[in-house]
Protein 1
Amino acid sequence: MSATPSPHNSPHNSPHNPPHNAPHRPLYLAAEIGGQRSYDAAWYVELARLAERGALDFVTLQDTFARPGLDALAVLSRVAPATERIGLVPTVTTTHTEPFHVSAAVATLDWVSRGRAGWLVDVSTTPAEARLFGRRPAGTVPALWQEAGEVADVAARLWDSWEDDAEIRDISTGRFIDRDKLHYVDFEGATFTVRGPSIVPRPPQGHPVTVVDATEGHSRETAARHADVVLVRAGRPDEAAAIREELRSRAADHGRAPGTPRVLAALTIDLGDGERPLEPGLESAPRTTAGDTGPHYRGGPVDLADLITTWHGTGAVDGFHLTPAEPRRDLERLVNGTVALLQHRSLFRAFHPGGTLREHLNLARPANQYAPAGGTS
């Protein structure tokens, strides 16, 4: 499949010369730093720092129970003190795991990163993964995504189970916690029950950023109800725009704020071959092709900048989540080439304006659902 034609015919309305009267919309960029199995934390620190140098909003680290490897959440907890601004978003599988522990682990990442944590919600669907735990057989995909939504729900409640000023730490009186500001969540889901409160104080962001890949239809309800950021795999801007409209319509039905969630197009990038000439007679943006993991871009950094500019300029997406085919090579070319060009065109910022991932993404810090009106958030 190919990207829709970009308006190269008009020099006043092209990726190189965006129209001056076009409304300014923030462009969000994220990158995956997995893909090459490594047991050396320095490898992930290097890639995260490289992405941070390009002022990317966040990095993700894939994880699954289907293959051996390090735990993504633990790895990014190691990366956290070695970075300063970049958001850190590990894949966290909600199937076969305890929701209470999931919420505590993600909250801990938010604390050790000083408010830069998120989590990419995923499910385990295969019998082989179920046998690793031996607790229950593999479930159906719709049921697993319903459970994932309930995990996201109870995680938010547990994060709110401590009000922001619940910790007193008064050594003279021996009072360390105001127990009136701790709350039972008393959650009953289809497959689990959690009473609470959490064992971890409320995270710096209130709620770490929730990310969901909503390419498959079964995950879209969970994304619409709970996700701050949604990843979609689409081969054309109009296809991505349709998914974005559907997600935001569903989110509005659940009473969520306009513009929620942020929608990023997920794209695997191979920047090893450099720029490629357009086919004779075809004036279009660089093409994307279908791959095993979704749309795949192969070309050079300049053409990729044009693709990003075109898709974002049409309002199809809020940004891109880019997975390098070769992590170090492609991430370097992304930061030094594509991102630098987008910054030169004033389409992407040159530095992180805030300290938390929510600030990067222009997301408000959620109010605490258990705090009294007018109290702490």
Note: The CA atoms of residues 214 and 220 lie 5 Å apart.
Protein 2
Amino acid sequence: MAGIGMAAPGKRIVVIGAGIAGLTAARRLQQQGHEVRVLEAGPMPGGRVGERMVRGIRFNAGARLVYAFSKPFNALLDEIGLTPALVPVRRLSAECVGTADRWTVELMPGLSSLLTPGLSLTERLRFVTFGLAALRARTDPDDAASTPAADAVTLADHIRDRLGANVLERMVAPVFRGTRCWNPEEVSAAFFASTAPHLVGKDTVHVFQGGMGRLPQALADGLAIDCDTRATGIETSGNGCRIHVEREGQNLVHEADLVVCATEGSLASGLFADLDPETRAFFAGVRYNSLGIVHYRLNRQVEPAMQFFTRAAAGPVATWQQVPGNETTGEAAQLYAQLSPEAVREAIERGMTDRLDELVSDRVRALYPGLDRDCADLHNQWIARKLPVFYPGYARSMSDFRERQSASPKKVYFCGDYLAQALITGAAASGERAARDIANHWGTP
């Protein structure tokens, strides 16, 4: 085995999964001089990042925004030439709807958040103190494990204790339910505590000109990628690895020296028969939430609107959006109805993940009375594994697993947002880490 910094023969490396983590790892490994092939089960690279079009209805595969707080990710965008394609979205806010009133909720916490109605004077003062402390915080927004104390408590308890019950009910809960389909009592405070300090005082997020698909397209440039190729099993006995795949109805086998497994974490262990008990135990604790969205294509124009709902007012819809049509491109106006966490569970329990519109139809008609007249078509989007769930204690378990992976040479390395942060930037950071581990363990050609 070559040591750190010593020249070594290039390895044949197969990367399983062409999401952002897998593409980032593959890019770095190819730059190191290895022979890299990426196997992707879907029809195109990107995983939960990209655009899809169904009968004239355009929607995102998952991620909708890019946050500018990750310096390594910003450097990656510079490297692949995407920085000029970033389009700023400033002062992003939504109307929050409660049972008796409505107010504006800011997605980037700042001074205007102090104007949120229903907060006590004590809670407003706590919010100011929180903001000042956040400006001095030293957290890594790409790593949920960078806030170990927050990992030990739920987000609900963290916000109640630090900011107050009204801040939780009127600001934090509607945003987390509406953007991530997370109930605050079901996740740890690690995501919030590691990212919020980098949002305070900022008013800008970004999208890519031309759509979120620009990112995986740029990362995939120059890589050997086999799409519509599903890995079914990985053997690691002997001197190398054998990757069994299904492609166009055929069962094939790829040979490799090393494997980078960049699938969703809840699927990873199913590919291996010989994982050690500690590794298998870790993967047994990896969880994802699901997300359901109904997209409606309209035959008339609409005014832009976005609403989040409190839990008491939500019913089956947590987020409602009206998206105007684009006369230049000819795209029709659309409605966006994202299911609440409770409706998502109902869809699963009742086997209705392909009929989400039936669950939300009454609520959508109340929000848009002209639906039957104006709707030209609809599409039910179901994302079975939307985001890794960082429940209390998970970040510590994740950190321990990463340390074991980095400690000594392996034949298989794992990466994904579930090993860093539930964001695009976290997925990229995990891919970078896997490539560094391989360079440290096996040298570079």
Note: Residues 424-442 form the longest helix (19 residues).
Protein 3
Amino acid sequence: MPRPRRTQISVEDTPFYHCCSRVVRRAFLCGDDRYSGKNYDHRRGWVESLLFELEAVFAIDVAAFAVMSNHLHVVLRIDLDTANRWSDAEVLEQWHKLFKGDELTRKFAQGGLVESHEVIHLKHSIATYRSRLCDISWFMRCLNEPIARQANQEDNCSGRFWEGRFKSQALLDEAAVLTCMAYVDLNPIRAKMAATPEQSNHTSIQLRIQAALKGEQPPNLLPFIGNERDNQPNGIAFSLQDYLELIDDTGRIIRDDKRGAIGENSAKLLTRLNIEQESWLKLTTEFGKLFHGPVGTLQELSSYCKHLEKRRRHFSACCQHLNAG
């Protein structure tokens, strides 16, 4: 039986979550549909554009994404600090970018006078919106529903476009986060949709490579900030160059027509993650099969289950794959 989303999210344990949405029937999110003979690549642009539009509204960062032919992967980071720092006016400003709100919230946002008997209702609305703006379920809802409506309109049909629920799994430590990001970034290469990461259209890795060539990082992706340090900004505590090299090395190994090997810098990064090279390829090619729930060490899984008041450590056998080396 599907578990309520609130029993899968524990910001106390991790702000990082891997989400995956799949289409139903013979629908194609993008690419060539051999049944209809149509090409739906333009829909990948819909998804990427809306993804970054939502990233600018929600207190949620996008760490990685890949738009495939019949499914979508995103690695998200909940930015609870930003959501809590927003003033009441800022919360309404963000919310009204997507939704109308109600008459009272619109009046307050426009500087109108709020009567004393309206304050409680206004405060409740603001608290609700603040919570939703750092809620992964609301983020994915705002991403999936408009795409479904556009696709159904284009296909001249009605009904479900996506499966009823998106898959969500907690990434409990830095090894889980980086492994999952690599899995997502290498999706097009595994599916033979692209030969190299830089040719992987509508993916986070392509945007990171394009920006890196200019000595920059994409403004709408969670940045790599180097080694962990005091008072560090929000980001991924690894070197961007090391990550790009690791993805390139791994992509060369995955491709059948090219030889490849883990380079020295990539090997050092895997050592820091406590992952042996022999395990890395299996993890990045079979992540979706190996992990069906939260990903991390058994100790972190125990803490996660405790905070969510779970009596049993479900998926403990799956988590052993990350430390199989």
Note: The chain is about 45% helix and 10% strand.
Protein 4
Amino acid sequence: MLGLTGILALLTGYIVPFVLVLSLLVFVHEMGHYLVGRWSGIRILAFSIGFGPELVGFTDKHGTRWKLSLIPLGGYVRFFGDEDASSKPDDDKLAAMSEEDRARSFAGAKLWKRAATVAAGPIANFILAIAIFAVLFSIYGRSVADPVVAEVKPGSVAAEAGVVPGDLLIAIDGAKVETFDDVRRYVSIRPEQRIIVTIERNGEKLDVPMVPARTDMTDQFGNKIEIGLIGIVTNQEVGHFRVQTYSPLAAVKEGTIQTWHIVTGTFKYIGNLVSGYMKPDQLGGPIRVAQASGQMATLGVAALLQLAAVLSVSIGLLNLMPVPVLDGGHLMFYAIEAVRGKPLGSSAQDIAFRIGLAMVLSLMVFATWNDISALIG
């Protein structure tokens, strides 16, 4: 059993950082819904961080109840006329409203206003990620190294392909390479997938085909990860390690690029899962996020914020998936409504919401099982 010291360590080391990070991401996501909904003239009944019984809250002059709830694993904005947990419209209830109430209800709002309100949540998550990266780049800069090979591991993919020390990597699959980290990022998510590395040697450009080796790695915290490697190393002498600084405007641009890298990397990871290039046990749930939050917290606020930015992008992308009960599912229904000129029938939406809920719950159970499996080895 855990003693008092162990419980305090668990709280301060894992639970508190996890709750703080998750609450920040949820607040920003729901604030996106709230701001655009308010701007669209939709009445907002409640803004909650967490689910379940209310712990503390207040009601503002617009009649919105702002509250912190018991279970800190999400949150919600409740719009007038949209009280159903799945946001499935109630045609009978809408018809029974007065003209004034209908105009201020979510279901009675124009299609573009509903779509904008729903899309604002994920968009807010992307903006948060860009802002976090921009702040970090402005304050700390970014450690970079030139993409020059200092060493080729014997027997590695690069060695067999004929790469030698001194080679300058200038592109991979036609995409320009500017830093050694660009190479690492591109290769790591493509195990056992053919790539073309363009190198420059003695002023001559060469296209070198390679297939990154699938490699099991262990990070500094003992977490096992699976990545692709080609077996090249750089060092200070040839890579010229340095900290690249950014003006505020340049930091925003670099933050946008970094956020885009996470988006494309996530889609590549999903594609690798579907095609079998990546094992599904790499998919983590709330336990793994809590563990990562605690680990990053030991490295300082900057590392924890960087994790928050990555998770913010992940939450934005997850919510944009065209699955009923998620924001992307609602946007899908709105697109159908725009084409048909009227929404899908209640029965069709009800079936879709049930299927979507089953999919989301199944994903949560699977990810949590992976977390537990990783903990018990």
Note: The longest helix spans residues 4-39.
